Automatic annotation (TrEMBL):
Compartments where found: Membrane
Topology relative to the membrane: Single-pass membrane protein
Domain LDLRAD1-like C-terminal span(s) in chain numbering: 120-159
UniProt keywords, alphabetically: Disulfide bond, Membrane, Repeat, Transmembrane, Transmembrane helix
Keyword DNA damage in annotation: no
Protein name in UniProt: LDLRAD1-like C-terminal domain-containing protein
Organism per entry: Melopsittacus undulatus
Amino acid sequence: CVCISAGALLILAAIVALAVALGLRPWAPGWYHKTSNNRTGFLCDDRAACIPASQVCDRASNCRNGEDEQEMLCGDWPHSLPGYLVFRCSNSKYWIYADKRCNGMNDCGDCSDEMGTACPLCGSDWWSCSPVLYEYCSCIPRRLCRDGIQHCQDWSDEYVCTP
């Protein structure tokens, strides 16, 4: 009887060691996942739904069982949120949800959320000008080109840019 128990323990230990070596982890709700638009998200208990970080602790249940609004997750908000859901701005007093980073908008107020290697340069739907006025950082959406409102300090959005 002792030999069988010891053998079972060895097999169990081998399975756990193999899982660790392969990088397999037991599932837990809220683990890092990617949303449909390839942004960091929150994985619901059903392991099928992944919601954007900004929908966690927003007082609206987005997961079927409401785990995105649980006290354990939202009780000491934003400190109780997992680190992958939060981006700390360069001014440590401010933070934004991780899915708001690199979205072209100045969510931090100092453009720190739009800088660095994680953020791509302006895409084809954007016009590059710096400094940008108002809510953008170094690019504006091309839909704002020639709209009669100055968005770039050098006015290039009104005279050079084409929508």
